[in-house]
Amino acid sequence: MFNPKKAVQFLARALVTLLPLLTALLVLSILTELHARQASWEDLRGSWRFWLAIGRDTAPGIVALLATYLLAARFVQRLYDVKHPGEARAFVHHCLFGLWSFGPWVRIAGGTAEAGAEHILMRVGGPGHLVVCNDSAVLVGRAGHFTDIFGSGFVPLAPYQKAYQVLDLRPIRKVQLVRAMSKEGIPIDCEVDISFQIDGTRELPPQGKPYPVVVDNAFRAATCTWVRGTDRFGETGALDWASRIAFHEADNTLRAILARYPLDRLIGFAGPDSAGSREPIRQELEAKLRAVVPAVGARLLGVELGDIKVQHQVTRQWIDAWKSEWERWTVERQAQGRARQTEQLENAKTRAQVMMLTSITEVLQPLVQEQQAVTARLVLSRLFMVLSRAPSDPLTRVNLPREALHTLELVRKLLA
Q1: CA angle at residue 80 from 75 to 84, to 5 degrees?
Q2: φ, ψ dihedrals at 295, nearest 5°
Q3: From 118-122, 179-183, 196-200, 390-394, the region with the lowest mean pLDDT
Q4: How confident is the model at residue 194 (pLDDT cuts 50, 70, 90)?
Q5: Which of 31-40, 150-159, 180-189 has the highest mean pLDDT?
Q6: 355 to each of 220, 350, 368, 394, how far by Cα in Å?
Q7: What's the pLDDT score for residue 59?
């Protein structure tokens, strides 16, 4: 992007830097020729041979200046491992004369530099500009000193000033496989799913900026990088603030928690009630992470646990045998429960029948004792009374079929 103001400033700096050198070369060349020809300025200033000699004398100086510029660019390319010589030459004349346009520039979005780490601004530094989107922040430094933290906007970079760390302000989700051991020392695997982001809750989101930047939290997150050697997974490199939470704090904390539980309790987590069984472990892990993540300028959004799996083949076979035995025991208990239920139901039916016979006997007994004439109509009336009360009697609770109730109703009408 061409900028007339910057172009004028670029030309002015170039003239201020080069004009004294070129003037000195020209004056020295003129004095040299005047001394060599033993003549005055009035005698030689109109001679074309004189000016040709002046050009010949100034050529070595101009070549020396150009060689110095190229050597400086070559030095920058080798020192900072710049791939393209043109970028190194542009860096040198930008440092000498400034920028004649907006570029070079790098767009920062999603917590990364879109041009990559090989860009001259990311590897060496300014002069240049950073275009920071509203989901990112950048910590800039120069000569080993941190200068400032910038949120969204255009960030001008001074010579040798570059982005030390780029931060992603959006919520981040990471799934980490934790390799731990049970209380018995049996290897197990468990996935932990955690969500977090840089804490920006001290400030209200300004207009058009959904992710505000809290300088203290952003600075802690940008400067908490750990450099590690080869770990138990065979990985090497640096741990930034997000990797420290996911690969260090969550990993170590969950391994320490799982080491307190025996395997039989951990294996039960894969059953139907696994969510409820994992809840105490998840709550303890979340509480401990909430206590440590503010140290890196972040806040925890959520923690979830996956199923726990056993690594060792022999242990898995033992677990399969244990599950088969448990399932067989469960089936036997269910069968026993159904048999006991059937027995109780039959006993209840027998007791109901006995109580019904007892009720019939109690109804007919007064007739015998009073030596009344027992007619069929009287017996049927008393018997119908007992049977009609049987379904609602709380002692018998006999449920008569609909056909039987219909028959009773017909008998009652006949008796009437």
Answers
A1: 80
A2: -65, -20
A3: 390-394
A4: very high
A5: 150-159
A6: 83, 9, 20, 11
A7: 85
Rg (Cα) of the chain, in Å, rounded? 47
Model-level pTM greater than 0.90? no
Contact 164, 142 (CB under 8 A): no
How far is residue 393 from each of residues 96, 206, 318, measured CA to CA in Å?
Answer: 109, 75, 56
Provide the pLDDT for residue 368: 54
Closest of 409, 405, 407, 393 to residue 360, by C-alpha? 393
d(CA 227, CA 239): 6
Residue 142, beta-bridge partner list:
145, 161
> Which helix or strand (DSSP H or E) is residue 337 part of?
helix 313-369
Is 163 in contact with 131 (CB distance < 8 Å)? no
The residues near 105 (Cβ < 8 Å, ≥ 6 apart) are: 121, 128, 129, 130, 131
List, in sequence order, the alpha helices (H) in 38-103.
41-44, 48-80, 85-97
Q: How confident is the model at residue 414 (pLDDT cuts 50, 70, 90)?
A: low
Per-residue pLDDT tens digits for 140-175: 988 888 888 998 889 899 888 988 889 998 899 988
DSSP β-ladder status, 128-132 and 105-109:
parallel
DSSP label of 136: E
Distance CA 166, CA 150 (A): 10
- pLDDT at position 381, please? 61
Angle between helices 85-97 and 48-80 (to 10 degrees): 110
User: Max alpha carbon distance in the chain (Å)?
Assistant: 178
Q: Which residues pair with 14 in a beta bridge?
A: none
Whether a cis peptide bond, with omega within 30° of 0, leads into 205 is: no
**Closest alpha carbon to 96 in 28, 13, 169:** 13
CA 157 to the chain's CA centroid: 31
Distance CA 47, CA 28 (A): 18
Tokens of 374: 């027992």
Long-range contacts of the stretch 222-225 (C-beta < 8 A, 24+) = 222/139, 222/149, 222/164, 222/165, 222/167, 223/139, 223/146, 223/165, 224/295, 224/296, 224/297, 225/165
Could you tell me the two tokens for 403? 């056909």
As a whole number of angstroms, the distance between CA 250 and CA 389 comes to: 70
To which residue do tokens 């609909």 refer? 402
